[in-house]
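Q: My labmate handed me this sequence with no annotations at all. I'd like to see what the chain might look like in three dimensions before we decide whether it's worth expressing. Could you predict it?
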Amino acid sequence: MGITAITGAMALAFAAIHIFVGRLHFLSVTPRSRWLSFAGGVAVGYIFLHVLPELAAHQREFAEEMGVDRITAESVVYSLALAGLATFYGLERLVQRGGEAGDAKRMQRHVLYLHTVSYGALNLLIGYLLLQGEEEGAWGLALYFTAMSLHFVTADFGMREDNRAAYDRIGRWIITACVIAGWLLGLVLDLSKTLIGCLFAFLAGGIVLNVLKEELPEERQSAFLPFLFGTLLYAALVIAERHGV
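A: Here is what I predict for the chain of 245 residues:
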């Protein structure tokens, strides 16, 4: 089976998560489902043990293509990661304030649509990186797919909790279309490695924020040990992949 067919199947699996996450009833418990905490740990492990080291490894390449020194290139790349975190945090605060405003229904609806579009853009990038990302070989692609799948479970569950009706009616279809469109773009659009790296950096910040906002609030009653286990397990898989185990 060729890489196009494999990544196409992965894109469809991503789409299935978006569409059917509401049927995973075992996640809707308090204290927070240990599976969600485990998924969050895997996603964080992916960012810190895979994405950020890859960005550091390409500093010289970034510097040459940008026409700047390596320190400046490093600052630009990590600033993009910070920008991704800040952008998605700002959107999250808008969603929360929408529910507290006097004209709550109208404002919340508009802000939730903005939130859906922004999350859709993140999905577009994730779908694109299935074919055009930094992953090399079956192991790397499998680790990317696993981490992003679990991230989608965590993020979609939280998004659906914010407004179940809006998510079920239109939100899930928008983000599903985006991840499929991203994969299709990967078939026809070949961006430079530097631009892909910059997009990857922004994606890293967004994922860190999305995971931590689901794990940290006290009312979630998150489970630390499953979160830690997910992080350590993913770390072990990354180390095994890099050493050819």
